[in-house]
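Handout, section B. The chain below has 637 residues.
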Amino acid sequence: MSYEDIRDKISETSRRKFIAALSITAGASLAGCSMGGSDDGTPTSEPKAAPSQTPDEPAEPLEPPEPDERITSARRIGPRDVSDFGFEDLWAYRKRQAVEALVSDPRVNDVASDWVASFEAYDPLTNRLDAVSIQGTTGMAVDGSPDDTPFEVTAKNRQVAYGLVDRVTDELVGLKINEPIDVTWTRGNWNDTQRARHEKMLDKEEIWQHLEGKEWYPMVKAAEIITSYGDYAHGEASNLAYFVMDGGELKVVSGFMDVTGEEAELLDVHIVNDFAEHPAYRIAQNTGTVGESVLGEVPEPPVMQRPQITAPNGYHRIEEPPNEFEQDGWSITWSGPRTVGAEVSADFNGKPVFSLTAPYSTSTCYDMPKRNGRNTREWMFPDNEPVISGELLYWDIHSLSLGGPGILGKTEYPSTQSRPAGFNIRTHYHTGAVQNARDFHSGHRFAPYNYYINYQFYEDGVFMPVFQRHGPGYVNEFYEYRERENDGPAQYYLENWLTKPTPGTTDGVETKIFDGNEWQTPETEFYFGSNDVSEEHLLRFTNPDGPETIDIPLDNLKEVVVVRPKDDEIGEVIRANPQKPMPELNFYHPAQYVDDEPIQGEEVFFWLLMEAPTDEVPHASGITTYTQMGEFNLSGY
């Protein structure tokens, strides 16, 4: 399927669900979309009938109250609505608090406590409201076998609970619980390489002993194009995972393979019981409830005031903006995502700012050694080779076909007394999930990732790239289910954001660094590592023949690489290109591209490397979010 076909399919699926969700009027307290999920995420199956009322159960109100203006006028918060710390704290702290408030409701608690897998979503809103949802499933059925592929997987009885939580009192002021549906997806539509690996792995007693006689399905990949594992370089190892129902619990058989020979060889296997450190269903099981449920007593959260990635019955709400549009002084053109996220170019007040900006690579590191003051290149790749110094690295890509869904939509920020008007283009990726993340949203979320990658634009000439990681990936495996090989962070991210600056010109730029005391003018390509950078540092790109200037404030969690574009390097070459694989397999860190090429008055690539020490946030394996932000300030426009 072509890129255009995939994008159209996802967009049309989400459009149908969004329109359907908007059209649903308030009904019984368990009212919801009365449809299940097909392989492309389109609802198909009828819901199970709600249990009949017993004499001991209170009558359910037929009509919850209508939401008031506080609810209907609430919008998603941007980073300039609050302080930088405040925005990061909302996602790191309030998300967990909102989930706890939601599962404290007796009706929600009853539903969530029966799940075997779960997924949560969150959006902080204005008017001191938190939008939160949890969703999960009670079991799994699989149609498939070692000799009968692909596998059709059905997650049973998925329900979604939506809440609106008062950020001051932690009270639920909005609640809705959807009726249970079954959600189906397919695994095992393999190429010959993946099929051969699967067949080889099933012959291994270390794997088959955990699957025999149980419901299970495989997730066997050819992921070596983005993987380094142990002593294996980029392109030499790949992962496998088998989801299995065992004793009423959903578990994963997780392993890695050496793929350097004609046949894959199993390297190791670990059994993972919980995919996140504190999944929502475990929180529910460990939370006591007091009093009566507010279901039916408070309004149902409107679709527009639900978390964007779960709004229409647990799926993504996608409203793509036009590929070209103008707003707040900005002229925006975007395309993709191919493998590097949405590729955006921008003008401001009719003059060019950048011809490309995109999150080209998200380096996801596990079980790292101590850093000991080294920059990220020296720490992660001490031998200047594409072999991670820790135990595992994924150079994550951001595409439609490997999880998607890509661009969700555009949020508008009206001007306030504290900041100018602006807008955000939000993109979202479940790297490694099935298309449109039907598995991930049903709680089958071991290994794949969960990112928001945002492009924030404001009418005072500020652009902010914002990276948000929700987890879980493999971090709980390294926390709980395997022996650590190193004594540094269990997980560490490096978001490698690539920009081609064009401050008022497309003919080349001047590049300068302010070191806290004076401006420096580097003549050749350079790498400023974190031990070279402080909050006093500033990177500047200017038009040699005009006033247009782009300033980028730095700090000790941001590194900088400035190089000339080259035909055989990532930037000029797209990521994970099967027609041209060597640039990908040779890639490990943008600093590897630094040599003696002159940069003054030349076209350059600027890599902003935003570090994300995710092990520093509470509950790093999935229930809280790590946020990292950059900032581009324009002048002379």
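Note. The longest helix spans residues 3-23. Compare this with the example in section A.
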